Amino acid sequence: MDSHEHIFSLLFLSLILLFTGADASGQHLNFRPTKLFVFGDSYVDTGNHGRQVSFSWKDPYGITFPGKPSGRFSDGRVLTDFIAKYLGVKSPVPYKLRRSMAQHLKYGMNFAYGGTGVFDTSTPAPNMTNQIDLFQQLIKDKAYTAADLSYSVALVSVAGNDYSHYINQNGSAEGFPSFIASVVNEMASNLKRIHELGVKKLAVSGLQPLGCLPANTAPSTFRRCNDSSNVLVAFHNSLLTQAVSKLNQQTKDQSTFVLLDLYNSFMSVLAHPSTHNIQNQFQPCCVGVSSGYSCGDVDDNNFKKYNVCDDPKSAFFWDLAHPTQAGWHAVYNKLQTTNVLQQLVVQN
User: Fold this and answer.
1) What highest taxon heads this organism's lineage (predicted)?
2) Lower Cβ count inside 10 Å, N or C end of the chain?
3) Integer Cα distance of 150 and 195 in angstroms
4) 3-state secondary structure of 162
5) Among 112, 108, 114, which residue's Cα sits nearest to residue 130?
6) In terms of DSSP bridges, do strands 257-260 and 108-110 run parallel, antiparallel, or are they unpaired?
7) At what angle do helices 176-196 and 161-168 cross, to 10 degrees?
8) Beta bridge partners of 36
9) Regarding predicted confidence, which is higher, 2 or 233?
10) Mean pLDDT along residues 312-340
11) pLDDT value at position 19?
12) How many CB atoms lie within 10 A of CB 85?
C-alpha cells in the first residue's frame, strides 16, 4: 500500500468510527436513548394526579409553561422535562394519560406521583414499588419490548416525602438515622429492579437541601436555611452515594447508575443567585395570603387566596417546596457543568 492509499484508508476508518460512535477497540462510545421512564414524586411528576385531588392542576400552576395547569408542581417545566431535552426525547406521557395519548408511548412513560415516597406516605397514590409494578405490567403486556428497554433511561426522584411523613407520624429523632438507612436500602432495591427489567441507564436524584425549602426558611422570613434539616440530608446523600457505587460495582460499569447531585446544584444556585438572574432566592413566588392558605387556594366564593410574584423567571422557588421553571433550569445548567449527564449517553 503506498502512502496515498494509507492516508485514504485512515480517513475512511475515521469516518466509520465517527458515524458509528466507535473507538479503535470497537467499543461503542455513544448511547442514543429513545425512551425515558420516570419514577418518583412531585419533582418529576408531569400530570399523574387527578384534577380534583391535586393543586398541580389549579391556577396559577403552569402559567409559564404550557400557559395553564398541566399537573406539574411548578409554574412550568420540571426536572423530567429538562432531562428529556438533554436526552433528545420528548417528555414522556404520564401513566394516567397513556390511553388518551397512546401516540406518545414511544417516548417512554412517567409513573411519578407527587407526594409519594419510597414507602407509603399520607398521599394515597402508588409508592415507588407500586410504580415499578405498573411498569413491569406494561412490559408483560408487551407495551415495550426488550429492544425498547435496551435503548432507555430511567429517572428516579426521591425528594423527601418519606421524611416529612416520618416527622408527621411523630417519628423519634433517635430513630431518624435508621429510618434514613431503610429508605436508601429500599431505593437501592428499586434501582436494581428497574435495571433487571431491562433499562440500561438509571439516573437517581440525590436529596436536595430540604432545609433551604421555603417551608423551612419561613421562620427566618425566607433568609436562612435550616442547618439541622440539611445534616439529615447529608447523611441520606452519603448513604445513597455508597449504594449507587455498590450497584455500579455489581454491574461492572460506573455509568449504569448515575447520581444527580441536586444538593450541590441547588446550593450553588442559591449561593450565587445573580449569576442565574434570580432575586430573593429563598422567597417563594406563589404563596398563600396567610398561613392557612397555600399557592392555588381559593375560598368558597372562588376568590384567590394566594399571591404570585411579578416575575416567576426571577424566582428560584415557585411554592413552599418546588422550584420554578427558572429554578429547575438553573439546577439543570449546574448538572451540565459536571460530566454526570454525559454518562447517560455513554455506551456501557
Assistant:
1) Eukaryota
2) N
3) 10
4) helix
5) 112
6) unpaired
7) 140
8) 108, 153
9) 233
10) 96
11) 36
12) 13
Beta-strand ranges (E) seen in the chain are 35-39, 93-94, 108-110, 152-156, 201-205, 257-260, 286-288, 306-308
CB atoms within 10 A of CB 99: 8
Residue 155 CA to residue 132 CA, distance in Å, equals: 12
What type of residue sits at position 272?
A: H
Count other Cβ atoms within 10 Å, centred on residue 288: 18
Q: State the cell numbers at 145.
A: 419490548
Q: Which residues are catalytic?
A: 42, 319, 322
- The whole-angstrom separation of Cα 5 and Cα 114 is 62
Q: Which three cell numbers stand for residue 241?
A: 452515594
Give, as one character, the DSSP assignment of residue 235: H
Q: Residue 189 is which amino acid?
A: S
Q: What is the DSSP annotation of 192-208? A: HHHHHTT--EEEEEPPP
CA-nearest of 58, 35, 40 to 208 is 40
| Mean pLDDT (whole number) for 112-132 | 97
The domain segmentation of the chain, as residue ranges, is 27-274+325-345
Query: Nine-digit cell at 110?
Result: 412517567
Average pLDDT of the chain is 91
Residue type at 126?
P
Start-to-end C-alpha separation, the chain: 36
Read off the pTM. 0.91
Q: In this predicted model, what pLDDT tens digit does every residue of 27-73 receive, in sequence order?
A: 445 788 999 999 999 999 999 998 888 999 999 999 999 999 999 99
Amino acid at 298: V
pLDDT at res. 20: 35
Q: Residue 207 is placed in which grid cell? A: 436529596
Contact 135, 109 (CB under 8 A): yes
- The CATH number assigned to the domain with range 27-274+325-345 reads 3.40.50.1110
